[in-house]
From TrEMBL:
Gene3D superfamilies: Ribonuclease H-like superfamily/Ribonuclease H. PANTHER family: TRANSPOSASE, TRANSPOSASE INSI FOR INSERTION SEQUENCE ELEMENT IS30A-RELATED. GO terms for biological process: DNA integration; transposition. GO terms for cellular component: cytosol. Residues 41-208 form the Integrase catalytic domain. GO terms for molecular function: nucleic acid binding; transposase activity. SUPFAM superfamilies: Ribonuclease H-like. This is Integrase core domain protein. It comes from Peptostreptococcus stomatis DSM 17678. InterPro entries: Integrase_cat-core, RNaseH-like_sf, RNaseH_sf, Transposase-Integrase, Transposase_IS30-like.
Length: 217
């Protein structure tokens, strides 16, 4: 949980929560984006789809109250491991989103490009600057088609889970960091059938260990 420390947030503690992940997908009509912010998801490498390669992420912004004085959650999920992060940021302005990614860049340092090979996001204004990462790193940023949340469905499903603990319309600022971290810990400690009953944390840590060993050798 070093990223919480780096973001200036409090520490975390384990919390025993029980919930079952459910999948809810439905086909949507794809609209062309009139404003091109960066690379289209149509350009995304095919290996991202099969989840066999580590380092491909989906990101989103979870809003509590639609006001400029409430925090939002920057949520990220790694597609292979299903590792899920919830990062409280000041608001949904693009500058604060970029600031959070700069923190992650510093946290993973020379390993950032291997941990974050691609990031898939929507066209909301909060992500309007994220393609700038490509100027600073080797990470590729892909934008989904407008109104097509199913194109980052892994993140959407996890966001649906946390809405059971942080309901829509409730101020995110009213939930302390320990509570938010507890939800994240629970999500990543839950064995998944899709992972052969391993947890996202276990798969994620194994992938990180592999990256660090390869770098050291």
């Amino acid at each position: 949980m070093y990223r919480y420390v780096d973001l200036g947030l409090m520490g975390t503690r384990n919390h025993n929560l029980l919930e079952k992940l459910k999948r809810n997908t439905k086909a949507q009509h794809i609209r062309k984006n009139k404003k091109k912010l960066g690379r289209s998801i149509e350009e995304r490498p095919k290996e991202v789809e099969n989840r066999q390669e580590f380092g491909h992420w989906e990101a989103d912004l979870v809003v509590g109250q639609k006001s400029g004085n409430d925090q939002v959650l920057l949520t990220l999920v790694e597609r292979k491991s299903r590792e899920y992060w919830m990062l409280p940021i000041k608001n949904c302005h693009a500058d604060f989103v970029m600031e959070a990614f700069h923190v992650l860049q510093k946290t993973y340092s020379e390993h950032f490009n291997q941990v974050f090979k691609t990031i898939t996001i929507d066209n909301s204004s909060g992500f309007s600057r994220l393609s700038e990462l490509e100027e600073l790193t080797e990470t590729l940023v892909f934008y989904t088609h407008p109104y097509t949340s199913c194109e980052k469905g892994t993140n959407e499903r996890h966001n649906g889970i946390i809405r059971r603990f942080i309901p829509k319309g409730k101020r995110i600022s009213d939930f302390d960091v320990d509570y938010i971290a507890d939800i994240e810990i629970w999500c990543n400690s839950l064995p998944r059938k899709i992972l052969n009953y391993r947890t996202p944390d276990e798969v994620f840590e194994d992938e990180l260990d592999l990256i660090y060993r390869q770098t050291a050798s």
